[in-house]
Batch of 3 targets.
Target 1
Amino acid sequence: MIETPRAVLDIEKIASAADDRASRLEVLVLGPNDIAKSTRARLTPGRPALLSWLSAGVLAARVHNIEIIDGIYNDFNDLDGLRREAAQGRDFGFDGKMLIHPGQIGAVNEIFAPSAEEVDFARRIIAVFDEPENADKGVVQIDGKMVERLHLDIARRTLQLVEASG
């Protein structure tokens, strides 16, 4: 868990432990309540005071190929606020969100799960790149959009998430 100013400053160093398989580090979890307390930052809607720290965590996790989970949303009676914050975390690149109440599970699962449209487009990307005439292409066009091989990797991950979630 990343919960202190020191941990935030050293987040890449902490994440680098994952490079050593013996460390068994597979995921980072950001603790915004503890970070806010330690830094005297205010936890306000949109979390503007924490945005750079959240971004640093995602970057460190990606550099070392591990998952990262966003911290809790305190007001478990405010599902709209939870949805906004979970969507923000998803858009930042977090892999999930910690929860403090069973009533939060459905909303967070919905936010972090790929939408039907994303799943459909992922399948289309894979199908286009699987066509023999596209085997050596780095870029194809789908519905007037440029789609690169990096989008193929994203599409595969999207379908892996769907498969993992059942």
Note: The first helix runs from residue 5 to 9.
Target 2
Amino acid sequence: MAHITFYEKPGCAGNARQKALLRAAGHTLDVRDLLGWPWRAESLMDFLAPLPVAQWFNRAAPAIRSGEITPEALDKNTALALLLANPLLIRRPLMAIGTRRMVGFDAGRVHDWVGLGPNAPAADTPLEGCAAANGAHNAHGCAKTH
């Protein structure tokens, strides 16, 4: 089993569900606060570089849902500056094992990467975004779990 560094938004119901799946599959997690982490451009790009700019963003972030920010219209440098200034915009979770990185939680990709065990959800099961019971959001995005 793998030991995964897992960057989350504390209290996010979606991240809680993702961590539970990983732990149930036997993985151990070093959980870190995505919003409070001292990101530098280089360390964030270690995760984001392989993806198109539009896939760097958390679609549940209020500024994106409201249309204030349109990720598809941003160039790499502008997008990176926005993410560093407001980590709530970063697509989550960010996961690392050694030098290997993953952005987001696509069940099929995560299963292929580290394995989700015999009770893995179907590859097309949505595991990103707000998992609040009614899609409730607060000013910081996804409603916190209690």
Note: DSSP finds five helices and six strands in the chain.
Target 3
Amino acid sequence: MHIAIAGNIGSGKTTLATLLAKQYKWKAQYENTEDNPYINSFYEDMQRWSFNLQVYFLNSRFRQIIEIKNSGKNVVQDRTIYEDAYIFAPNLHSMGLMSTRDFNNYKSLFELINQFIKPPDLLIYLRATVPTLVKQIQKRGRDYESSIRIDYLTRLNERYEAWASTYKLGKLLVIDVDNINFCENKKDLGTVIDKVEAEIHGLF
């Protein structure tokens, strides 16, 4: 079983991945930002480092998918390769922060990789408004995220909504983060788990 959690920066992906992995005693596969050699440089100069960062993420995410497949274990994954390809890279291109030449190169690489990967059994999309995202980003206090612009988060949110509305690769569960606090409220977490249970049982 492969569950993947998608959502904008600060939506609670890592927290939910941890909680679900604990609930089901599954392996959690996290997005590795601490060892990312480009993340700090990217937020300081997006135009210079956008292509490097996105290729790094593409490589990292592809490796994760291969590891998940080869492990034979049940896994909860924090963020998907599809978000990089359909949300983050196109957004950078549309904002003029990635050249058309680099973007076309990136798309070609993703299209090749996409032939060798299988989508998750269940995709959980954490939907959140920008004020909620800003609040949670500030709360966790990562230095490299302090310079994220509101318009950047807004554009990402628009792309997440468009992508989720057309997602047809498998089962999709949308959780409205504005109206639920699964991190601190056990009842809210129970509500999320109930929804996940319903989707998982529907897979068999």
Note: The domain at 2-201 is CATH 3.40.50.300 (Rossmann fold).
